C-alpha cells in the first residue's frame, strides 16, 4: 500500500528542471537587473557613406575583405603595412598604433579594451574613418 501512495505522490509533484548552472542563473539575474534602454545602433542608422558603414560591419563581424578561410576553418590575413611582422587581424586593426594616432588626431581617446564596444556606439563612424585612412579600407 505504501508504494502506491508514494507513486501517486510522485505523479502529483510538478516536475521542473532543477539542473540550473551558475551561468544560467547569472544570465537571468543580469537580464532582470540590466537597464534595457540602451539600444545598439544598426549600421543602417548611421548617416554616412557606404564605405564607412561597410567598414563598421566588417569590423563588427570580423569578416575582412582580404581574409582567407581555410578548409580546417582557420583564417589567414594579409600583413599589416604599418607593423610588418603582424597579420592584419580584426583585433590588430583596433590595436594598431597607427589607428590610435589617427583617433587621437580626430579628438578621440582610444582605449584599447573598449574600441570593440565603441563599434556599437554613435562614435563607430569615426573609428571606421580612422581605419579607412590607415589601411585604405579593409
List keywords for this structure.
138 residues, mainly alpha, two-stranded antiparallel ribbon, 7 helices
Summarize it.
This protein is an all-alpha fold. It is 48% helix and 3% strand. A hairpin with a 5-residue loop joins β1 (68-69) and β2 (75-76).
Descriptive account of the structure:
48% of the residues lie in helices and 3% in strands. The protein has 7 helices and 2 strands, in the order αααββαααα. The chain has a two-stranded antiparallel ribbon. The longest helix is centred in the N-terminal third of the chain and has 12 residues, at 22-33. The model has no long low-confidence stretch (mean pLDDT 79).
Largest sheet: 2 strands, antiparallel
Counted by DSSP, the helix tally is 7
Quaternary status: single chain
Q: What structural class do you assign from the helix and strand content?
A: mainly alpha
Low-confidence stretches: none
The overall average pLDDT, rounded, is: 79
**Cα distance, first to last residue?**
76 Å
Q: What sequence of helices (H) and strands (E) makes up the elements?
A: HHHEEHHHH
**Helix share, percent:** 40-55%
- Find the count of extended strands (DSSP E, 2+ residues): 2
Radius of gyration: 24 Å
Tertiary shape? elongated
What percent of residues are in strands?
Answer: under 5%
How are the strands ordered across the major sheet? 1-2
Amino acid at each position: 500500500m505504501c508504494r502506491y501512495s508514494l507513486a501517486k505522490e510522485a505523479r502529483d509533484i510538478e516536475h521542473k528542471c532543477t539542473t540550473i548552472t551558475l551561468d544560467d542563473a547569472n544570465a537571468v539575474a543580469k537580464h532582470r537587473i540590466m537597464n534595457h534602454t540602451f539600444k545598439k545602433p544598426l549600421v543602417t542608422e548611421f548617416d554616412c557613406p557606404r564605405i564607412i558603414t561597410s567598414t563598421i560591419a566588417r569590423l563588427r563581424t570580423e569578416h575582412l575583405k582580404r581574409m582567407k578561410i581555410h578548409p580546417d576553418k582557420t583564417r589567414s590575413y594579409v600583413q599589416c603595412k604599418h607593423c610588418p611582422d603582424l597579420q592584419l587581424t580584426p583585433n590588430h586593426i583596433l590595436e594598431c598604433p597607427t589607428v590610435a594616432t589617427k583617433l587621437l588626431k580626430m579628438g578621440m581617446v582610444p582605449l584599447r579594451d573598449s574600441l570593440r564596444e565603441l563599434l556599437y556606439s554613435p562614435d563607430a563612424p569615426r573609428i571606421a574613418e580612422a581605419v579607412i585612412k590607415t589601411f585604405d579600407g579593409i
